[in-house]
Amino acid sequence: MGQSSSSCSCNNGHEIYRPVIIGKNSGDIDGDDDLTLSLPDECLGSVFGKLGCLDRNSCSLVCKRWKCVDSKSRNRLVLLARSELSPCLPSLLSRFNTVSVLSLKCSRKLFSIDDAALSRIPVFLPFLKKLKLKGCIHISDDGLHAFSLHHPPLLTKLSFASCGFGARGLNSLLSNCPSLQDLTLKRLRKLDATSSTPASSLWPGALNVDGGDVINDHHNNINAVVAGDAIKKEKDVHNYCYKRSLRLERLCLKDLHNARLFIPLILSASASIKTLIVCRSSGNWDRVLETSLHGKTTSISEIQMENVQMGDAGLLAISSSCPDLQLLYLSRTTDCTDDGLSAIANSCRKLRKLHIDAWSRFGSRTIGDGGVFSIANKCSQLQEVVLMGIPIAIPSLNALASNCPGLERMALCNTDSVQDSEMAFIAAKFLALKKLCIKNCPNVSKSGIEAVGRGCPNLVKLKVKRCKGVTPAMVSRLRFQRSSLVVSLDAGSMLFDSGGISLLSSAVNEEEQGTATAMTNTNSTRSAAAASTTTVAATHVICSSRGALLLRSKFESALQLGRRRRPTEDNAS
């Protein structure tokens, strides 16, 4: 810490470093020797913030001042929430009473902290803003209810994963946490099994029947029957919703079941929600979106739907209710087609990022080139496009290039339609493109890569994966065309030297020529590569293939083993 230098001595052939205290005498330790005494507590706390967890814990044991500064400067605390922690939790939290982010994690196979320990957290952490519970299966609805009764004023983010409570505890949190803005729910099996719904206290009586969803207001005696797209007494229903609405801005649902349970939650938060993320959650999400968003203009700017049952009806509900949509992520949605994507293009003109992983069930109709063409013609603010499994053609690429001048990132994956002609068109027309990814496109070959090297003047990174027609030799030629271009190829981790030979390839050749020669040539090759990087910018080829990394590790292990065996054989001879 700036208060001592170090010296070393040898013990059994190993160097041992010992601190030497600099003071008036060699044996005196004076308070003036601690240079941190001149630092304010805020500066010392910022220094502690740069340290890792183990180093910071060690610093808290140096002296009382450091312990106090460490306690007051901690903003984030991560604890193993086993049952043994329950009696120690009050004293621990009272020490770190300025923590704003608390994470409690436990294995589902072990006993976690109980309801009593959870209920005391707001008392000891008045500045708590974010709370994350993972694997705490012994926390029940009663614990969440007792926690929410403290009405934590600054709590804005909650994340629950693999916990043991249900809808009643969530309703207590939603009712008693006035500042809650971010809610994440993952793998809540008890919530899936229960018949009650989250936010039912805010929007009572959400019930699913064969004829439709019946929403009852006990105070105003409102009975609204949702059957298809017709909503009766819409004005009274909307007034009630906005009166009792939540302030959620982000809602994330992952690995959950019974989609209809979340209709009241989305409905009560529709006035303020900006981000909706749904992943691997079963149920008919077309009905959820139609019921929750029908006839409203929301401020949602980001929607991510991954591995869910949703079709054009859900996209129509999004298009009619989300005019400010900026990010649309559709991955393996079952029944989405070009018609739904065209509706998005007609209504969501502010779209900036589009990610589509097309997937059809039993060979049915899915999103294709027509939907991309509609998006390209209507959404001129696009900056990022990721298309997977979509047979895109040159007319769609031409529409993207001419109507979206700010397009900077593009990925084309899992399609046979991308060939050398499409690559040449991209190189000639996409002048603002900075990052390009081509993955699993078997018809891309040498001429397509060379065309990209000659075009796209602003391109800084090119990623090529699983393209059979592209070899490392072709990529190495880009060095002479674009010296600063970063290329990612699934053929090993390589840095080309001035001769265009990769270090990995040279290491393999050196192994065949002999271990002793390999050691000398490896050093010379590395020095030559280092010299070349000082004069001319090298083209970095970053490996993203596990097979190539495994192959490289095998070669390196063989080289090291050969170096160890060679002196032994020489001594034996």
UniProtKB/TrEMBL annotation:
Q: Which positions fall inside the F-box domain?
A: 39-79
Return the GO cellular component terms, semicolon-separated: SCF ubiquitin ligase complex
Task: Please give the Pfam families that the UniProt record associates with this protein.
Answer: DUF7885, F-box
Q: Which domain of life is it from?
A: Eukaryota
Biological process according to GO: SCF-dependent proteasomal ubiquitin-dependent protein catabolic process
Q: What name does the UniProt record give this protein?
A: F-box domain-containing protein
Q: From which organism does this entry originate?
A: Populus tomentosa (Chinese white poplar)
